[in-house]
Amino acid sequence: MSAVLHVRALRGTPVAVPLARSLATSAQTIRDAPLLLVDLDTAEGITGRAYLFCYLPAVPAAVAHILDAASGVIAGARVAPLDIGKTLTRHFRLIGVRGIVAMALAGIDVACWDALAIAAGMPLAAFLGAAPKPMRAYNSNGLGLIEAEAAADEAEELLAGGFSAIKMRLGRHALDADLAAIRAVRRRVPDEIKIMADFNQALTLAEAKRRCHAIDGEGLYWIEEPIRHDDYAGCAELARELDTPIQIGENFAGPHAMATAIAARAADFMMPDLERIGGVTGWQQAAALAATAGIGMSSHLFPEASAHLLAASPSAHWLEYVDWAAPILAEPMQIVDGCGHIRDTPGTGVVWNDEAVARYQLP
């Protein structure tokens, strides 16, 4: 039986971690990962951990302020994720649980679950009732909006570690440039390698129809977020018209958004983001929705925790692997034969490399 834990304090540490490969998307080029490291200290001496990806350098400090406010609200409370979520939702009701507030609450939720699994002496997957197992992963590091042959070179490099799938970004200035990149990558990697493609919401619906029909026969495994993420009617139209599956979901703001997208038949596959879906608690609700609808569910970012959650998801599909947090982790995730491996250690396995955290910490 797991121990009863009580919140002592929350701590947030902002860092900016240089990426091993910069990532040029249709929105912007990312060279550093702005992260907020979340520590939930308990009166019993156990610390639960999580990290948040904050997209822009100014955001980690802003989320840390929300974390500080939340700490005062839940200090002394039992570590019970559902109850803590309700308490904090009520506290932040006037501003609303969205944006940086939602990010902070998701980080707290993940840290709560991590602490509980550590107290139980179980990997998070096992604590959630699943057998920890390797999760097949696609390499999502790099392959941004670069010239076609450079993309092909990088695609070959991304197969190291035995990956059987990689993801490239689309949304170049012209359709011909996207086509050239797709074809260069497809020629260079073995036929059995799956290639996912992500537009990062770059297109209008009209332009998406033009481009997606043009690339429909190019051997892509899925086309991700070609249009605005919450245009479910437009996404459904593309899903009906194309043979290549449509993937959405990293921008679902909680399970209710996912339920709406499923009702609209907006995509063939879905990929909630741990930070945006509501942490472990929100993920479990999303996994139930996906399983009920028979939809393959993949993850977005956060591979260390997401591997545990996919192991406990009935319709688990693909783990998105990025190494963005690896430099500040004591034991980064290991990729073996193209799979993310869950260690047989309690919790999510996320523990900070204190020396690296000090090196990359933001003022």
Structural class: alpha/beta
Residue-averaged pLDDT, rounded? Answer: 97
How far apart are the first and last residues' alpha carbons, in Å? Answer: 41 Å
Taking strands numbered 1, 2, ... along the chain, how are they ordered across the largest sheet? Answer: 5-6-7-8-9
Query: Would you list the SSEs in sequence order as H and E?
Result: EEEHHHHEHEHEHEHEHEHHHEEEH
Q: Could you tell me the number of beta strands?
A: 12
CATH superfamily of the largest domain: Enolase-like C-terminal domain
Radius of gyration: 20 Å
Largest beta-sheet characterization: 5 strands, parallel
Number of helices: 13
Task: Please give the CATH class of the largest domain.
Answer: Alpha Beta
Helix content: 25-40%
| Total of domains | 2
| Beta-strand percent range | 15-25%
Overview of this structure, please?
This protein is of the alpha/beta class. The chain has 2 domains: 7-122 and 354-360, Enolase-like, domain 1; 127-341, TIM Barrel, CATH 3.20.20. The protein has helices at 59-74, 81-91, 99-120, 124-127, 148-157, 175-188, 205-215, 232-241, 255-263, 274-277, 279-293, 303-311, 354-360, and strands at 7-24, 29-42, 47-53, 135-139, 165-169, 194-198, 222-224, 246-248, 269-270, 319-321, 334-336, 339-341. Helix 2 (81-91) packs antiparallel against helix 3, helix 5 runs parallel beside helix 6 and helix 9 (255-263) runs parallel beside helix 11.
